[in-house]
Amino acid sequence: MSGGHSHGAAGHAGARHRWRLLVAFVLVGSFFGVELAAGLVSGSLALLSDAGHMAADVVTLGAALVATRVATRPDTTGRRTFGSYRAEIFASGFAVLMMIGVSVYVVVEALSRIDSALEVGSTAMLVVGGLGLAVNVVALLLLRSGAGESLNVKGAYLEVVADTVGSVGVIAAALLVMTTGSAVWDTVVALAIGVFVLVRAVHLGREVLAVLGQHAPAGVVPDDVTRALESVDGVAEVHDLHVWTLTSGMDVATAHLVADDDADGVLDAASAVLRERFGIAHATLQVETRGSRQCQGVDW
Predict the structure, then answer these.
(1) How far apart are CA 205 and CA 122, in angstroms?
(2) Which of 123, 150, 263, 265 is 20 to 30 A off residue 133, Cα-Cα?
(3) pLDDT classification of 271: cutoffs 50, 70, 90
(4) CA–CA distances in Å: residue 206 to residues 112, 200, 299
């Protein structure tokens, strides 16, 4: 048996970017109250929808921060053999639910306003939308580098992306209302923002479900892994291969290798193939000899 194990905080993608999440959380949380108050005073649904997105951002960023802390916390029970790394995946799932909830509310509210003759404060929309855009751009720059490594950070990043689009939409709506004198543009832009966020939520949700469903990691084809292991000197056959993502940046694999009688070095060579060609640093491999019945009864 062989395994490569690295469960420290230093190896956890989300933990490396915790400070970015914290700064983004403070920035977005500080501005949320301002935008909510401005939306209520101006009567702008676009502003209120953007404030709703910011509320989702605050909750999502807070959940992401908690998840990165939980994920790297030492296990004192002795029962969490994989640690608590999947906390960040649940936080990402929570981000999806928040995005869907806000999107549905905005879309329903926008549809209910289509035939209403409402007046909105376009000046307040323009000023607050501009300030919101600045806050979101800073948060985006902070989270961008971590989004490619951690699904948790990616969930927070996509929330801020959606909110940035929302801020641009608020500015556009304000300019259109000023130019045309029609408040319908406020409703149209709010509806567009809601649909955009919903699409992003569905995309992230599929990634979360793929991890929870223990699908093969993105870009890793199990048949390719099998062929690569079978090409290792001394390996005659590979079966019972399983490869999945534990959490962002942590892909895991198990496999049974049928080896020739002189199987010295098979474990090291196979582990190196998984690590160097597929980025799988945590692998548990079992070596069997030809004619072995160690796998009798295994059918999954």
Answers:
(1) 35
(2) 150
(3) very high
(4) 30, 10, 28
Per-residue confidence (pLDDT) for residue 293, from 0 to 100: 55
Output the pLDDT for position 231. Answer: 93
The strand pairing partners of 238, in sequence order, are: 257
Condensed to tens digits (0 to 9), the pLDDT of residues 90-99 reads 877 887 888 7
**Superfamily of domain 222-289, CATH level 4:** Cation efflux protein, cytoplasmic domain (3.30.70.1350)
Interstrand relation of 250-259 and 235-247 (parallel, antiparallel or unpaired): antiparallel
Query: DSSP string covering 12-44, please?
Result: -HHHHTHHHHHHHHHHHHHHHHHHHHHHHHHT-
Nearest 5°: phi and psi at 51? -65, -40
Tell me how far apart the alpha carbons of residues 96 and 231 are, in angstroms, rounded to a whole number.
41
CA separation for the pair 45, 106 (Å, rounded)? 8
> Token pair of 253, please?
């694999």
Q: State how far the alpha carbon of 295 is from the alpha carbons of 83, 172, 211, 261, in Å.
A: 28, 64, 27, 18
Question: How far is residue 80's CA from residue 73's CA, in Å, rounded to a whole number?
Answer: 11
**Spatial separation of the C-alpha atoms in residues 52 and 98, rounded to whole Å:** 10
Q: What's the CA angle centered on 191, arms 189 and 196, to 5 degrees?
A: 95
3 state DSSP class of 86 = coil
The length of the chain is 300
pLDDT confidence of residue 14: 53
What residues does each domain of the chain span? 2-212, 222-289
- Three-state DSSP at 253 gives strand
Q: At 119, phi and psi to the nearest 5?
A: -110, 140
Residue 254: its pLDDT value, please? Answer: 93
